[in-house]
């Protein structure tokens, strides 16, 4: 039919940078392979499902007034291969049209006319229709951008001089390592033309390290991987001095010295990014029982797998554990339809609340957890859902999580909590924030060994980072128990050079940390990494964690005890000011440093002293100040700063106040953060109520009873989820999750390995990196 809306429409075509959501609905995981296909809005290019139980396309049209959509349905051809489509590569990024394996059916519909089909070929609409059909899907656009931004140039390529082919060099020598018989993964030294094989990998693949051996012998730091050179003048390049993948902006000129014509080259080997992605996807935690029996695939509500987007297993494992927590599931799953109907964000793909609801619905509805059939007619693993829009929303503008590189799972958990805090401020005054299940307080006790007086302070917290004991044995490192790790956490630490306000001189002190209250869900990171020559290396230590009930009562703080005398406050500051929290620091960086084995007080101080300039700067500060007598002394605010000296941006005030924070507090935190809105937000989120926090500190100093029920809360916990890591570094390898569903005799464990989900009758938490314990009330 021809309708008035179609005749009068003047839609604009999407540019190359415009996100076009044409493969999947932005509010559920229905996609162009489903029976109804996907409707792409011809005004804003949002993707919506046009049928089924949700009909988000119609809902979007009614809310936005965008009536015209392009329906796209993909149908597999009868001769289509059962193999997975080829992965997107870094140096050969191209659009996969699916012309060989699929056919596409498209038509324009008008939701202003009850979803009726519109006459095809209208000249005012057809250019936009064709632009949408040929546009790159939004999720692929994010991946291309993220991958392209990973590699940069360095001065060693820019300043390369003294190039000269070594004796005996010829083009015939480029086909084999100069020191062994390797003919693949070869690296050409751009200084002398030596050909060396790559590094030996953990699984025996790669090479024999002759490329790096040449650098160590000669100091020639820059090289290029033969086989990855393209006619466009790109290739994998590496700088051994920087110890990182780099880009050679002068590749053609540098290769010409050795008689290599870039224009005549063809890429014959996989790039580093492709190999890394392949290796990560090959990681496969045992899918068999101890006696070799194959674990059967599982599917259903709460048992939906998450496809690996390329180094995204750190996110998938955390999200499976997080949505295994009742509070998170109940917050976002049953309310998904209500949120979509009332959300005021124009683009659902960029609304984190929309994407949290979408992911919760995808995981718990059971709609997308369908076991497939293998070639022999048996049950095979489900395809899973791709959390592309969620990743783009939660990682927006983040310098690490926005890339396609592997990341630390615990750091992602901290980042997720912060993002949820921000968006939940605008909903029900933050009262629905599921992060509250992680909230608890710690009691920090400090005692001067000179006068024996003590000081107690209560600090808010959301997780615990536990050290492990490194005990070498013949077969490696001896196992440790969870209790031993908790004892280390609660043990006294020496504080040298403490400036005691009672002794009025530098003395020695001891400090310890215990629980002042217990959370509903306790998130625990085990610090399995140590620094070796400034490089974090993984400690392969088995941590014996019971699957049954664990009591934390022995680690509960009791406040000031009879016979203990409080330390006096500083003469130049009131009592509450002395207990004021430290200036806002980037908690993500603090956690990253803690995971390397540094004490928290050093991490906080280093990040604060270096002005939140990142982990590298903070780590350098720690090493430079290792011998400082007050390195382990927490910084305190001895006086109220002169807030009038720090100017504030009215736009930043409005931005933070719109999140639900009191305006006077926003202005105060902005001044304290030097006008930095990001630091002020960290402060606002980490200290919900200054007065309450100060009152809690005073209560601990005086021995007064805390106002909440912290002393009556149960200290019994049960393990309900954990994230395990395989590999030598947090920046490579693979993460999986194990989650307990149900409780008591009806509980059962399941393992989530990206899209694969299996029942796990004998979970193995010994090698886990992040644990989730639920309080037994």
TrEMBL record:
Keywords: Hydrolase
UniProt enzyme class: hydrolase
EC nos: 3.4.19.12
Name of the protein described by the UniProt record: Ubiquitin C-terminal hydrolase Ubp14
Organism name: Coemansia furcata
